[in-house]
Write a structure and sequence with these properties.
Blueprint (H helix, E strand, L loop, with lengths): L1 H20 L11 H5 L1 E5 L5 E8 L4 E8 L4 E11 L6 E5 L12 E8 L5 E5 L21 E6 L2
Antiparallel strand pairs: 1-2, 1-8, 2-3, 3-4, 4-5, 5-6, 6-7, 7-8
Amino acid sequence: MLRLKILARCCSLLLAVLAVAGGLPATAQPPDPANQITGQWQMAPNKRARSGSITFKANGTYVMDERLQDGDRVGKKGQYKLYPTAAPARIDICLMKCGGPGSQYTTCFGIYRFLPDGRLEIRTSPDAKYPTAFNDGADPLQDAHTMFLTRVP
């Protein structure tokens, strides 16, 4: 029993010395969503679009190009804002400038998450409100408001 107490005190002392000396590894910080989202992403088909891409830039702007199911091509650009501390995390995808006059009518209010396989899922709302949940298990080809995005290398 005495040996166990001595061993425990030695371990505690060693941990304290390592912590003060900086010898313990830093705890892993979660990735910064702003860095994680930056780059070009390829869209999987959904009810709205056959294909497309969106590029999120580090300066808070984006460029999106979609080929709709009817064959028409649509391009959009503007600003985006992330709210990573909301639950679920939120994104505003604004046509032109976020927060400008009338922008509440031209902004897609959405939620986003990074999936374990590296894809990005963004779910927007048809009624200018943030969705409260993801549409887990739904067929993407029957959902016009969810984008599954794969990073382009």
